[in-house]
Amino acid sequence: MASAEQLKALLKSHIEGDEGRFLSIAMQVAAHEAKLGHGKLAEELRDMIDAAKSRSQNLAGVGKLVPLNKPRGELVGLLSVSYPHTRLSEMILDDSVSMKLKRTIKEQRFFAKLKEHGLSPRRKLLFVGPPGTGKTMTAAALAGELGIPLFLVRLDALITKYMGETAAKLRQVFDAITEVRGIYFFDEFDAIGSQRGMANDVGEIRRVLNSFLQMIEQDQSHSVIIAATNHPDILDYALFRRFDDMIQYGLPNQEQTVAVLKARLAGFHAKRFAWSKIAEHAAGLSHAEISRAADEAIKDSIIHDRDTVAEADLVRMLEERKLISGKLANNNSEPPNHDE
User: Fold this and answer.
1) Among 179, 2, 148, 221, CA closest to 75
2) 141 shares its domain with 225
3) Alpha carbon 167 to its chain's center
4) How far is it, in rounded angstroms, from Cα 98 to Cα 91?
5) pTM surpassing 0.85?
6) What is the pLDDT of residues 233-279, one digit of tens each?
7) Residues 223 and 239 in one domain
8) Which of 73, 91, 251, 289 is least buried, going by the fewest C-beta atoms within 10 A?
């Protein structure tokens, strides 16, 4: 363990904002642990110190960008900002999705090293998948992991009926992307990214899409741009090559469903739950819908002063979510009898 003097020095350097001294003392602590034979701990400390140094270099490389407390001027109606603390470890993801996201985070953290070799990290991402499968939460998790703000682009305010006005507002958004490093999230992106020439296409949307294609092509900022859609089939083909990576989200499998339920019901589920049977009743539901059903079951238990959720109640809530979502037809099991 670190000595009392090292602990005091660490705390003092943190209070004074002396990051260089803080990391230097931390490295001394790691070296001391290595001498004591605590190799694994020493290695973990060095990894954390290296990550902190890399982050400092990255921030130095992109300039000292101070996050806005809130968008100002005309951006007030176009962007909403938050500072998430979400982490990827809190999400239930496919291995391929998790791998791609961790790769993006690692490349972002080693921006300076990549730049030395004339390379750029992945920073333009396209999220594709059904509603409720984790696209928005992923944007928050990336912001939390990188310690930067999350800006939600409000398409309802961006798209107007006046010729040229939408493109001008889009220009303001891309100016903000350059000026303030953050995660910029375009949800329901098919509203502006649909194929040019579709039957229901209008001239203004074509111009907006052309403007977006041009702006994202020219964008050399250090922000991360994420576009999310439930309808990739209607996106314009020219969009796909503008993104560094496309990440596909799907409905949870049985194992993931059980993991979502266990995480959501922590402290409220009985030890003898027939999880595989319960998961069958959740077939066809998204992560968000499964979580919602678990929350409803917990609320019912709390109201009736029960310490645990009854398996039958959980199944009933899952079936109710299917009815609401119009997915009961996809389930082979019989709906529960609510009169029993």
Assistant:
1) 179
2) yes
3) 27
4) 9
5) no
6) 777 777 888 899 999 999 999 999 999 999 999 888 766 889 999 99
7) yes
8) 73
